[in-house]
Design goal:
Elements lengths: L2 H13 L22 E4 L2 E5 L4 E12 L2 E13 L2 E15 L2 E11 L4 E12 L2 E11 L5 E4 L9 E3 L21
Antiparallel strand pairs: 1-3, 2-3, 3-4, 4-5, 5-6, 6-7, 7-8, 8-9, 8-10
């Protein structure tokens, strides 16, 4: 698949969720507040004050605005008192209004607002599915790239299922009246 085909396919996945009147960007993050607080919850937390990093383990959930990130383990690096990078490992799932992306590992680079997933990457929206090994989503521009290095044949794979068509209502015509 060419890069243009992959970009079109990802755009189709993103656009499939938005109503016709809404402006859709990327994975449905057009209304996302970049300055929204980042909430993290987990079963356990360890802090390393020397490296200014905190590690959350067990059922980790990260929420900022309308996106959710789940993983087995998450490390948050802090620079100047603010989260700088969030590293997620194990069963990473990124959920946004327009769909889901999952992978083995991921990084959320907070300042430039970039999300990168690696490993067995699966991008889904309703019944539409794409497979690859690396996904990068720019939350500012809404642009995404799906790569397939290491995939069978080295190619991105996608399955797009059109919505079911509703049958046209059968016309119920009345027989013409006859004059007696």
């Amino acid at each position: 698949m060419t890069r243009r085909t992959v970009m079109c396919a990802i755009a189709l996945l993103a656009a499939a969720a938005a109503p016709a009147s809404a402006a859709s960007v990327g994975m449905g993050l057009s209304n996302r507040d970049a300055n929204a607080p980042i909430q993290v919850s987990a079963d356990h937390f360890d802090a390393d004050f020397n490296s200014k990093a905190g590690t959350y383990t067990g059922n980790v959930i990260v929420i900022q605005g309308d996106f959710h990130l789940r993983a087995d383990k998450v490390r948050v690096n802090v620079v100047a008192g603010k989260p700088d990078k969030i590293y997620a490992n194990g069963n990473v799932v990124f959920t946004a209004p327009a769909g889901n992306a999952q992978g083995d590992n991921g990084v959320y680079d907070v300042a430039p607002r970039l999300i990168t997933l690696n490993g067995r990457v699966i991008l889904t929206k309703e019944k539409n599915v794409m497979h690859g090994t690396t996904l990068t989503v720019n939350l500012v521009t809404g642009q995404a790239q799906l790569g397939a290095k290491g995939m069978p044949g080295g190619r991105v794979q996608g399955l797009f299922t059109p919505p079911p068509q509703t049958p046209a209502p059968a016309s119920q015509s009345t027989p013409p009246k006859t004059n007696p």
